[in-house]
Amino acid sequence: MSNNxxxxxxxxxxxxxxxxxxxxxxGTFFANRFAGNRLNIINTSSNKLNDLLHIIDDQYVDTxxxxxIVEQSMPKILEELDPHSTYISANDARTANDDLKGSFSxxxxxxxxxxxxxxxxxxxxxxxxxxxxxxxxxKIISVDGVPYVGKVVTNEETLxxxxxxxxxxxxxxxxxxxxxxxxxxxxxxxDIPLKSIDATYMINKxxxxxxxxxFGETTYAELLTALAExxxxxxxxxxxxxxxxxxGYLSAAIQMVNEFLPKNRLIVYTQGRRSRxxxxxxxxxxxxxxxxxxxxxxxxxxxxxxxxxxxxQDNDRGIIVGRRSFGKGLxxxxxxxxxxxxxxxxxxxxxxxSGRCIQKPYVKGQxxxxxMDLITRYERGEFFSQDSIRQTGExxxxxxxxxxxxxxxxxxxxxxxxxxxxxxxxxxxxxxKGTIAQFCFEYTDNNRTKLATFDNAATLEKHLxxxxxxxxxxxxxxxxxxxxxxxxxxxxxxxxxxAIYGSIIYNMLDMNDYVQYLNHDDITIAKAIQLFKAKxxxxxxxxxDRTTKTDSRKKKAAYHRGTFSLQPKHLPxxx
Length: 575
What we know:
alpha+beta
């Protein structure tokens, strides 16, 4: 008996100890649950946000979509850093870089949406849709056997349904002009190239022209091809058009500038708090180091396009013509999350060869004010008079000693004011409501057979000028609720002609033809031609900024507030 008692007594301390441990755990649980949740870890700033989400998920009165809260919070957190640190959801990330990568996998059509229906405007040459017989003008009415018309039809949804992995199939049902029954095509998705150079051609017998839309993975190779084409044509000077170019890959800009600079010239350098200074210099292997060079910029030229412009300007390699550029001097690094979403986090600033950072001023946490900068520039009259431009940044010197300024974009060597003398509220209304684009698409669709007999912009324009299209458009606009304004129509006659003819040319031909047509009477192109003929493409210390003569007061009065691109380029999406 005494032996049994002794054996039982051996377990008593263990039972007591276990009871104490269990009591501590239970007590801690209830203390945390009902006494304010004073977790030690929540007092550390690095974990507060994560713990807050856990507490909400565990204790909030209603069921909460934590993932949704995170999606909404990420952009707001990054807003507190700078205007260019951004968050991109997994859905958006899948298509965000298509333009820069130079290709995507899809069916190879360009489309617009009219009356809740997808209208095919162009077929990518050599693409999957061309191979099976889909034609421009076809209306897509079903995808994979499911009707696709009505309110469900959006650009985003159409891209989602038509794009997909290479080699996968999609059934597309279309209604074709002149056919009474739908046609069905099975399309095998394939790689669809996206060009970043919109146009290459000879402006005249000596001056070549290249328009670059963005700086992507294939842009440098496209540039070499474009230069080779111009060389065959015997070009003696070059215009590089970066107007509307929002940037892209830094590496592409560096490679491209390298083609025009002598050996060991600084192109750009980057530096940040955790990023040591890194310099990028020319290697002297460029094939076009001495050709006269003119670079066109405007207020929408940004980022990598400003790197290109700044390197040319600071090295006194060519002249910059147009209007002050956007002013983006921050470098972003993409960081991907496990769900496919990503952030573009600013890790450094970039500096042009003279040492200037051209990032325009911003206030952290106030992105709307930053986005309104172009309107602020308009209100100051900056688009109409060079004297209205305020550059308050530090002064720097180019290679030969010319003065340039930091803190607000690239200032051109030759300023060209925005031409708005023919602009009227009537024209602006027709553009902003998309009425011109709608009219041009319908006219193209109804006359596609005849229009297809013209194979270049010049002959097609000649035909269009005989069709009384401005009058036809005015009647069309009136049927859409835009009241006829005869005096304004007369004043904007040229703008209407340019917009209507240009849109139809784009619908029937390609971007190269469209750009050539628009450039015919472009005042910035005219300035570039003038400077080339006058042999003023090499900067000197005696150069002074020259302003194209305009009546800035009249232009400012005619300019439609807040509208900075009144050419109706409602170009199709590509899938």
